[in-house]
Input
Amino acid sequence: MSALSRLAAVMRKETLQMRRDRLTFAMIIGIPLLQILLFGYAINTDVRNITTAVADEANSHLSREFIARLEQTQVTRIDQRVNTARDLENLLRAGKISIGIAIPPDFDRRIVDPERAAAHILVDGSDPTIGGIADALRNMPLSFDTGREKQRLEQIEIRAYFNPERRTPVNVIPGLIGVILTMTMMIFTAVAIVRERELGNLELLINTPVSSAELMLGKVVPYIVIGLIQLLVILLAGDLLFNVPVRGSVLDLYLAASLFIAANLALGLFVSTAVKSQFQAMQMTFFLILPSILLSGFVFPFDGMPKFAQYLGEALPITHFIRLTRGIMLREASLGDMPGAMLYLAAFSVVAITAAALRFSKRLD
Amino acid sequence: MTEQLAIKARGLSKQFGSLRAVDQLDLDVPRASIYGFLGPNGSGKSTTIRMLCGLLTPSEGQADVLGLEIPKQARELKPNIGYMTQKFSLFGDLTVLENLQFIAEIYSYQKSLRATRIDELLQKYDLTEQRRQFAGTMSGGQKQRLALACAVLHKPELLLLDEPTSAVDPQSRRDFWANLFRLAAAGTTILVSTHYMDEAERCHRLAILDRGIKVADGTPRDLQRSTGMSIVEVLAEDPYRAQTVINQLAVVASVTQLGMRLRILIPESVADPLGMVQSELARAGIAADTHTAEASLEDVFVAVTLKPERRAA
Output
């Protein structure tokens, strides 16, 4: 009974302090909004209007038609015409263009000769996404009225399930929820204990009847509420600005998020018991955030990563959470479809908070 | 025996790496009294207090605090002690009232009596006007009163105060001690560490610590009587020259200048200390007014912290 009232006391105190700290409070709303705007508008893998130059040495009816078709795709924006392939190379090197299209003088003859390439696409390989676009250009179906119809390649039609228009925000925002929650939640608790240690509050607290577990839980619970508020901000912004749907159950999403938030807060607490200063706590948090962004499947497809990186990714709570959010929001999955992910998040939270409570001894030595 | 003793420690020691912070400390603190720890910084005062409340584990020895075995029963001890840290350790971003409420909740103070108790403390410790003020914005004296109010809120049997007055002005210190006497009179045992002589003098009993070792203990009166030193006071026109002359005497344990006065500690084994000083000054041609004096607590402190070869003479 008195344990519960002590827990309530710690929670009430944390909430009061959090409300007093204006900047932190502003960050609770500000960070998700800013991130969602940044990621939603700036990150776009659906690339268009790549600066392109053409060296049309054939200058024939066919070559002009070919160029017109390239322009129609809207992927390339041809804003320069030069005379030779050498000029294209110079422009590429100078970074003036990302793609150069070289059409040799014998283009008309090459196009009917399956042994020889009709044209060359010169690509700025220093940017990985542009290479992919060039691949797409190469596979562009070309059929010219040359009398002898070129044999058309068998075409594979791609149909994108769950995101038919292939809009980037739809793919990004479910993962972004995980990234934002990881960043804010972990930092909150990572500095929580160590700040009180630095301010001297801890020496007082550990001389009271409050137990380690009460102190740890009391610090975690108020932030779960904050995390859920952040989730609401992200979902609203995603819906209003980018029309990102939540096809599955919102309740499922909130349940998954609660567990995920708890996992991050517990991890943050563990960091807080391990470090000596707030500065170290921040360093440690960033050290953990980077793999959360890179290895979780948020940026790179999980299946494409080397095995070793996949194992690391599997250990991170965010990897499991992104699977859950993508499933619930886009594929209309329910929690029952992905019990493993939920189980992992729950187990992670319990282990981390236990480790934190054990590491945090009520002693100074 | 334990009934009258709030704290009984035997052979208490603490080793930090190669540093022996506290060495074989024996301690008997009677109930309902103010017991002082006097010693310079680094003498092991804080370490001892922290061991007694279970914050630090002793490397050797054992302690019995309020009938509980420490550190094994530290958990059971917590509800019965109040602790005031050297540094202000309440929450600066909470108000005075919120701090008191938090402490009341943490100690599970009976809910129906909580508000009354807090009002009583606000009045007693003169904080009623500051009740809505953030603790972090208060003066040193106010912070200290709040810290004491929080430490005694749950009416602990034992109060551990680690240099509670190091950050406050003399008036606040006087008021603070008036509060301590009131608490002791009501039955609270108080263990307080200090490096101020005037505070040590107010304690019922005290222990002098020097580099982790207890060099003396007893009532201030007893300590003053049993220094083993004679005190000679010299009032000279040129105290600095007089000091140089006196310092040349091999038997003199210590000379301290206090304005125009010199306070000289000479072992009791010397038969006529006053005559010795007078003749020495006369030989050097220094006009001075000399007389013997009672040992002050400061003299006690100087005497017991002397290097052994000087003490024995």
